[in-house]
From TrEMBL:
The keyword Iron does not apply. InterPro entries: Homeodomain-like_sf, HTH_TetR, Tet_transcr_reg_TetR-rel_C_sf. It holds the Pfam family TetR_N. The lineage of its organism: Bacteria, Pseudomonadati, Bacteroidota, Flavobacteriia, Flavobacteriales. Keywords: DNA-binding, Transcription, Transcription regulation. It comes from Croceitalea rosinachiae. Signal peptide: none annotated. Residues 31-50 bind DNA. This is Helix-turn-helix domain-containing protein.
């Protein structure tokens, strides 16, 4: 049991370091030699756990990238609550982290999706599955908001969820170039306007 725990910790550390390297340099700009050097390990040890660089990245996607994306999700609550406030709070927290970061290379999931698109269907499928989880979760939250009387009943919640996510992908790409605080504030303000436009208007 102790050996398994130690092995699990070691694998987590390898994935964490690998993800940081891939995020910074990109998958195709990172060689196996780069990985071995960063992990301070040998090719024999690496290939004992992972068959290839591709399998190493897939392991990272299945564990760390999925978990980091899940951290952005808001599980549908069982009591009546305004979904717009929940989503805004989530994005405000993320934007606050980004504006304070000194090593921002963009939104991790969208970066990798762009890099692997039309280049590696196997890896891209894992990334698309992670994106789908996020889309479904936000759509579910907005649909519950419709039932609770917060979201206009004419709104297509799946389309609204896609709009929110694609807007976040776009602003995170722009923020890599700098001016992060202003762009963050603009994004959040526009998101508030959008939510106001699709909210259920209360009439007297």
């Amino acid at each position: 049991m102790e050996i398994n725990l130690e092995n699990s910790k070691m694998l987590h550390l390898m994935r964490a370091k690998g993800l940081e390297l891939f995020y910074k340099k990109g998958y195709y700009n990172t060689s196996l030699t780069d990985i071995l050097k960063d992990l301070s390990t040998t090719e024999a040890v690496f290939k004992y756990h992972f068959q290839s660089k591709e399998d190493f990245f897939i392991s990272i996607a299945q564990n760390l990238i999925l978990q980091r994306t899940l951290d952005l999700l808001i599980e549908p609550v069982s009591y009546k609550q305004n979904p717009f406030s929940l989503i805004l709070d989530m994005f405000e927290n993320e934007m606050d982290k980004v504006t304070k970061s000194t090593t921002d290379y963009g939104f991790m999931l969208s970066n990798f999706m762009n890099e692997f698109n039309n280049r590696n269907p196997r890896i891209n499928k894992y990334l698309l599955d992670i994106l789908k989880i996020w889309e479904i979760n936000l759509g579910t939250l907005l649909r519950k908001g419709q039932l609770d009387g917060y979201v206009n009943h004419h709104i297509d919640c799946e389309s609204a969820a896609n709009h929110v996510i694609s807007s976040y992908f776009g602003i995170r790409t722009l923020m890599v170039e700098g001016n992060t605080r202003t762009l963050s504030q603009q994004f959040l303000q526009q998101l508030r306007y959008y939510f106001h436009s699709i909210s259920q208007k209360i009439t007297a």
